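Troubleshooting entry. The earlier prediction with zinc ion gave an output that would not parse, so I re-checked the input for stray whitespace and re-submitted. Clean input:
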Amino acid sequence: MDKMLLSQYNPSSELIVEEHLLTKPKFPAYDIHTHMGKLLPGKGYQQMYKVADFAKIMEDLGIYHWNNLDGVWGKDLDDMIAHEKGFEDKITNFCWVDTESISDIDFASKAKANLKDAYAKGCRGIKMWKVITLGQKDASGKYIRTDDERLKPVYETAAELGMPILIHIADPYAFFKPITADNERIEELGVHPDWSFYKPELGLYGFEELMEMQDNMIRNNPDTTFIVAHFGSYAENLAHVAERLDAFPNMYVDTAARIAELGRQPYTARKFFLKYADRILFGTDAYPFECIYHTASYRFFETFDEYFPYEPTGKIPTQGRWRIYGIGLPDDVLKKIYFENAERLMHLK
Ligand SMILES: [Zn+2]
């Protein structure tokens, strides 16, 4: 054999070990992190799918309730609520904050009013996402920081209303590094070059700066509950996340789209899950056309299976060329992660 493109290389494993393929979680689960609208699947989502069809998929996956993080605000929120009619007992919306208007003189009062209006309409949390720090600029031309004083009224109103803030602030560490042959996400960045934040010409915040502002935000707002998406932004470094959970009692993490990272460090991950069982929430990043992380998550949490794909699609894995290992969690921990922590933070019980 002469040469082959990396994209053509897709070996099948000949390893023969015990397998436990799970289609449902051991206990009905609350998925804290899904998208049903403007972010994913995108504009015009109402015509793209039926909520009943998505609900059937989620039900078959053992999900009894989920958060839709695409609630937005105002008219967009009204449209979303109309779209979800009949499924209010299964879906909770998280609204957004209009951070693009952060430099307006009336930003604080408008943001507060929007949050109160969203709460009155049934939203029970707030979603803040990475465009705030990695795309939007204020009137002075500076990228917005999450520890910006101007956002204080948002954090205070969230605390007042008992709305947790689910925040996605960074992305995998490798997305902040040059796209070179030693970048472990090179194939993924090849498919999505726009996911790379290594763009020196744009003057974006680096990963460390984002972590610093994440720390400041959580520390400076102790009465606000923060669920930091994608395992506290840093699933590649669980010691970093553990240090934060020790320091900040108001911080939680979700597992959305990070099973690949967690499952390649099963010894470290298992210890982490046992120690921080009260602080981890099950989430997937599912949307109506893609629910690939549910069954891999169940297998990862519940079994000691070895070297299995984190995306059971049969295709080349998108997040990197490795496989994962289960961490066989005990029932009491599974219950906390699957639903107890979510029910507590969402004030369901
Ligand atoms: Zn997401």
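This one parsed fine. The first strand starts at residue 29 and ends at 34.
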